[in-house]
């Protein structure tokens, strides 16, 4: 059986180290003294943590940024990246978040893209500092074999992961090591680049010394991973009233993204965690999971769903009873309510703002297309969103009586790291609080006048 060969644009980086002077970062006096990379492959998403000790040359100028290099293939699958500057040692460590953005410098001759971590305090000549970089890659696991014919209830799924034995860096790396953590010790094969060792569910590449900039040593790991699902599309609608409860409706479209086989895929437990979605579960007065609607789009599949309430959270279990012939996909809707007083606040300047959480509560699940619609109360105007990462924001109006402002936030390739709070500020006229009661009393008064008119005539 011949393993699959992915047509990666990064193959051209093999053992290349020459970079033209026009594409070198301006802080060319920086070098990486030591680097440690930890790749987590315990789920369907690859999380990579890199610890870099960088040093600025004594003859160089002040460094205002540190560049990170990614292959074109990694940029395509990059869902999240952040960097933190660590100063001090042991208990006196200070962590400073850094802003990471795509660099406007041209790509290196072999296609590597540069991102810059902006330093709030410049790195003086002769000084050194430590950076911790976290980035998340999605859709990087290739099931092989792609189709499984097994009589067992839960057949083994094997996947391939492709990467480099050394860190792709625009700087000279003096010393580096890479660790790969897998969910189990069931490793079928892996690429050996001496020194390489494998002990149980962990592999080690290195230690490697004196690697030139933009050096790439391709490796592949073939191991067992559990089946996983992907949320193709998630549409969340948040209806913010003037009183009562916030109504939240989630519409899911999910599919199997692993190997196809003829037996049952697995029990898909879609867990609705109010504390993960909106700060704390103690604020949730009721979760309306009994009103959800479920629809399967796989022919010949028998399925059912149930809720298991507890004191702190409610879990929605979506179970496939009769497995599909190959893969599966399904759609369902879940709705719940949240008390308004715990999420709606008033700012110092008199504006009101709603404090919600962006993202999906399942950390090991990726959402390909995510959209959150916030419907503000009647009479709201001049909305302003504060989101800690780039999103596509649009504003529109639902014309009922006086009009309701609608804010739509869209993002692609959403992972658990995007599950952070965001705020929507808006201006509101207090007179609109009386709109509903006055409308009700106006209708009652009109009916009373009509009754009196017909009575006296």
From TrEMBL:
It comes from the Eukaryota. It is found in: Endoplasmic reticulum membrane. Residues 1-23 form the signal peptide. GO terms for cellular component: oligosaccharyltransferase complex. Its main location: endoplasmic reticulum. Keywords: Endoplasmic reticulum, Membrane, Signal, Transmembrane, Transmembrane helix. It is a single-pass type I membrane protein. The keyword Membrane applies. The chain crosses the membrane at residues 438-456. InterPro entries: Ribophorin_I. It holds the Pfam family Ribophorin_I. Pathway: Protein modification; protein glycosylation. Belongs to the OST1 family. Component of the oligosaccharyltransferase (OST) complex. Subunit of the oligosaccharyl transferase (OST) complex that catalyzes the initial transfer of a defined glycan (Glc(3)Man(9)GlcNAc(2) in eukaryotes) from the lipid carrier dolichol-pyrophosphate to an asparagine residue within an Asn-X-Ser/Thr consensus motif in nascent polypeptide chains, the first step in protein N-glycosylation. N-glycosylation occurs cotranslationally and the complex associates with the Sec61 complex at the channel-forming translocon complex that mediates protein translocation across the endoplasmic reticulum (ER). All subunits are required for a maximal enzyme activity. This is Dolichyl-diphosphooligosaccharide--protein glycosyltransferase subunit 1. It comes from Urochloa decumbens.
